[in-house]
Amino acid sequence: MKNIDVLVIGAGPSGTVASTYLANQGYNVMVVEKTSFPRYVIGESLLPLSMGHFEEVGLLPYLEEPNFVVKEGALFIKDGKEFRISFDDNFTEGWTWTWQVPRRQFDKALADAAEKKGVNIKYLSTLNSIDFSSEEAVKFEVNTQQGIEEYSCKYVIDSSGYGGVLTRMLEIPVHVSPTSNMATYVKLKDDTRDQWENPTQISFEILETDLWLWVIPFHNSNTSLGFVGNKKYFSDFVKDGADTTAAFNKMFDRSIKFKERFQGRELLWEPTVHTDYMRSSDKFFGDRFVLTGNTTEFLDPVFSSGVAFATESGLSAAKLVARELKGEKIDWQKEYVEHLEYGIDVFRTYVKEWYTGDLQKIFFHVNINSLMKKQLTSVLAGYVWDKSNPFVRKHKTIINTLAQVVDIEKMKA
Ligand SMILES: Cc1cc2nc3c(=O)[nH]c(=O)nc-3n(C[C@H](O)[C@H](O)[C@H](O)COP(=O)(O)OP(=O)(O)OC[C@H]3O[C@@H](n4cnc5c(N)ncnc54)[C@H](O)[C@@H]3O)c2cc1C
Question: What are the chain's domains?
Answer without folding.
Answer: 2-72+98-175+278-343 (3.50.50.60), 181-275 (3.30.9.100)
